[in-house]
Design goal:
Length: 319
């Protein structure tokens, strides 16, 4: 996700260089130093200083039938190559800058058109429904993709607990605002705090989850600790991180990236190889760690589960 409007090489094309040059340099420098400051989470046997650790525990979960059997992206890539503008616009920046972020104590409010509004602490949220491992294909709007074993629970479980009223049509999510811990929020690259949204039926779809972990442990700071949204049929920027508020409303909410560049980032943001980004094609993608591109799948390959929600819609207009 880029802010600049000037002509430049699409990020979908410069990603390979970052993966095969920058990542090696980054890891090499980290090995020389002996540790990587990744918010206190284990990466290839390395730990951040203990004072930066607020979580990082093993989670109890079951395997989900929704998981793909594709090869998983290595943990070191998932935790070192991130889009998290609250910390940095550089892909490698969040893993270096997120160490001082404190994901506990944490609470999430559920409000708006619900019969039972409530504020939950993170430990209560993790007990709303049994945790599952969902191994999902994830596609970034910039053209790169991963396969990530998320640990989480269906978003619908939380919404059903709050009991949406008939007026509820959309779900608005808001991220935490902590510029003292998130240096990217000290810059006006986006309108903070980060806000995202779903239609209520999208939020209730079984594929939509609130993730609290990956690779069997609680979420690293740079991946959205302590709780984030995951909607695998949509582009990655829809997966809002470090959520503090969920509000059910009767209108389509304005979202951060749509507000920043409405011609580039639509509200729906479904993965669609037939709708190009204004600055690059979406027809193909590059899996992180691979040289060759592969065809982009409609709805990221999850059409059987989600296509019915968009029946009759013009997905070029409603991108």
């Amino acid at each position: 996700m880029l802010i600049k409007k000037s002509s430049e090489i699409p990020s979908s094309e410069i990603t390979p260089k970052a993966l095969y040059l920058n990542r090696r340099a980054f890891i090499g420098a980290s090995l020389a130093a002996g540790a990587v400051a990744l918010g206190g989470y284990k990466v290839s046997g390395m730990f951040a200083p203990a004072e930066a650790v607020s979580a990082g525990t093993k989670l109890q979960y079951s395997k989900s039938a929704y998981s793909t059997g594709e090869k998983q992206t290595p943990l070191k890539d998932v935790t070192s190559y991130n889009n998290f503008y609250e910390f940095s616009t550089d892909k490698y920046g969040p893993s270096e800058l997120a160490g001082s972020f404190q994901p506990r104590p944490w609470s999430v409010s559920v409000e708006g058109f619900v019969k039972k509004p409530k504020t939950f602490d993170i430990d209560s949220l993790m007990k709303i429904a049994p945790l599952e491992e969902r191994i999902y294909r994830m596609r970034c709007v910039e053209g790169w993709s991963m396969v990530i074993p998320w640990i989480g629970f269906p978003l619908s479980a939380l919404l059903n607990l709050a009991e949406p009223t008939p007026k509820a049509k959309f779900v608005e999510f808001t991220s935490v605002l902590r510029p003292e811990q998130m240096p990217g929020q000290k810059r006006d690259v986006l309108d903070w705090p980060y806000v995202e949204g779903l239609r209520l039926d999208e939020a209730m779809n079984p594929l939509a989850i609130l993730a609290v972990g990956l690779y069997g442990e609680t979420l690293p700071n740079q991946n959205g600790a302590p709780i984030r949204l995951v909607t695998p049929w949509k582009y990655g920027f829809k997966g809002i991180k470090s959520i503090v508020k969920i509000r059910l409303i009767d209108y389509q909410p304005e979202t951060t990236w749509h507000k920043s560049a409405p011609n580039e980032y639509g509200f729906y943001s479904n993965v669609n190889p037939e709708v190009d980004h204004p600055r690059w094609s979406q027809a193909k993608e590059r899996r992180l760690g691979e040289l060759l591109k592969r065809p982009t799948l409609m709805f990221n390959g999850y059409g059987d589960q989600v296509a019915s929600m968009y029946k009759g819609m013009d997905l070029r207009k409603n991108f």
